[in-house]
Structures are given as C-alpha cells and as structure tokens.
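Human: Respectfully, please carefully check these tokens:
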Amino acid sequence: MIKNHRKVWLFFLYYWMIFGIATFFGQFLPESVRPTLSMAIFIIIMISLFTRGFNRTGPVISHVYAILIGLVSYGTFEGFINQFDAGTFYSIIILSIFVFMVFGFFGYYVFKDITSWGKYLFVSLLIVIFSSLLNFFLQLDWLAFTITVTGLILYLGYTLYDFNRMKNRAYRNPRVMGFNLFIDLLMIIKRFLELYRRFGNNR
C-alpha cells in the first residue's frame, strides 16, 4: 500500500512537518492572538464549503490552514500537558495513530468500495460544524460532549473512506489525498485529547 501510494504518504508527512514547525512557533504567539487565528481557521472552512472555486485542499489554502492550525494547536497541547503530563499526552498520540492505522487497514483491505460514503460524511461534517458554532454561543456541556464524540466518529469514518478511495484509485491528486489523511489523523488526535480531558483524572 505504501509503495503504491508513495506520493500520498510523502505529502502526508510533508503537511505534518509544516504543522510541527508551526506548532513550535506557536509558543511565541501571544495568547490574545489565538482566538483570532481560530476564527480565521473557521472562516476558511466555511468559505471552502460554500464558495465555488475556493478549495481548502488547494495548494495555497492547505498550507495556510496547516500553519494556522499548528500555531493554534500549541496552546491546546501545552494546556493538556500542564493539566496532566507529557507521558499521558504522548500515550494518547500513540493511541490515536494506532486507531488511525486500524481504521485505515479496514478501509483499505476489508471494505470493497465505500467511495459513495462521501456525501453522507459531508452532511455529517456540516452538522458538526454548525453544532460547534451554535455551542460557541450556548456553551452547553452535553452538546460539547456530543460534538466531541460525533466528531471522533466522523473522522474515523473519513479515515475508512479516504483509505478506501486510495484502494480504488478514486482520487486524482496525491497532494490532496495526503492533506486529507493529515486532517483525519489530526482531528482524531484532538478528539481523543478532548475526551481524555473530560474523563481523565487530574494529577
């Protein structure tokens, strides 16, 4: 699988490298700027969903997106490590990668053709996005938990879907597919961190 999709995995690693560098520089970012960057990320997502010709996976926007989300993620990661510890943080990262690989295996080797799932996953993504926007104003704890769980299930579904697309050669651009896999794993990691923060024991 890796050999047949070498360019996809190279772009996957490439976007993680960009994200990692941006996360490093996120430590120098003033706390007051992070909400603005988070809003910029949300605007990019919304415009890419509803504006023809504006593609989040485009070569320029995807790089901007990876940089912005890296800058913002430093605060998330730092807060988690301060609340718990570095060992727990890296354990969840390893767990997330393992789950990503397991679902990728099933998507590639077990399911024959689920490329038709795209439209259902897209609708689910819209629901999660608008629910998140709604809860930004309502601040309902049960809704936040529902969004976290639903988001995790959604990106596990996207992992199955994207790996299955690779199996069936149902993609044209290795860079775009690499970016999609980067987003899948990143969101799985963030959802697991959110769940642990909710249920884990503080030091």
